[in-house]
Amino acid sequence: MSNSPHTPKLVVCHAFDGVMSLDVIGPLQVFGSANDELSALGRPQGYEGIVVAGASGPVRTSCGVRIYADMAWRDLDLDTVDTLLVPGGVGVLTECKEPQILDWVRKAEGIVPRLGSICSGALVLAEAGVLDGKMATTHWSRCEQMARDYPAIQMMGDRLHSYDPVGLDGDPHVFTSAGVTAGIDLALAIVEADFGRALALSVARRLVMFLKRPGGQAQFSAYLIPETGATARLANLLEWLPGNIAKDLSLETLAERAGMTPRTFSRVFARDLGMSPARYVERVRVEAARALLQDEALAIGQVAELCGFRHPETLRRAFQRHLSVSPQEYAERFARKSLVTAN
Known about the structure:
Elements: E1 9-14, H1 21-40, E2 47-53, E3 57-60, E4 66-69, E5 71-72, E6 83-86, H2 92-96, H3 99-109, E7 114-117, H4 122-128, E8 135-136, H5 143-149, E9 154-155, E10 174-175, H6 182-195, H7 197-206, H8 232-240, H9 251-258, H10 262-273, H11 277-295, H12 300-306, H13 312-323, H14 327-334
Parallel strand pairs: 1-2, 1-6, 2-5, 6-7, 7-10, 8-9
Antiparallel strand pairs: 3-4
């Protein structure tokens, strides 16, 4: 790759059938907007963004829209690439089973300065073995699966991305990002590393984004929709749960409602949803508390009671565990009315 300061950094995004469109377009738009900001300052273009796929031409995304691949990934000269990004989407598991793709990723890891993933694209990097021994994150729905299937990776489920240009709290070379829009956060971090905070902040403002979002990926995700793969009995239970969060939701109660023994219920629940019933219930309650903190002028103690937490401190610990912020901090940032802090 040319070291000329006036040569744009080549950013390549790998697309495939069923790719999440925003995983591709979101980060590339950040780099394009960085070019706009640089041009406004009378500076040369900083980035050139292209898309590669199995062949040049249209690629069908998971939403049905087609994006255009500039060339086949086989024809890409990796020596010219600054940053290679692997996105996620419903087709990612097929990519994980393609030996040629995995070999290409391994080869790229030894050549390109930066190799990253967006959303569930982390599974491709994990399957290729390039994340072993590193911190990583991915879409919230894949975190527990990834931790189970790839124990050599240090999973950080509450992180928006694992990129750190100085390598103190992440990795400057191989890195990942969380679900969907976290790819935009990752791209902003790359722009900041390349051209400084002021330019990255200008890009974030142009896109109406935080430069650095507070908290982790779960904070901005209403992620409690029942999994489509759940059994009918579980689906009915999961539909019932959000309206009954103040009730006794012990393992025995939930198992009885699902028509199973506690032991069978725990096994089926973990198999279908990838987590324990207790963890899921806590997530449902935290999600409900988020909504109350955004929309109501309620004391934290009242919110805790309404959402099934026995004490405000239990709510605080759950918020820290899932969202990496306290209820008070969350309300200060997002509440439409002022929060009453008395218990």
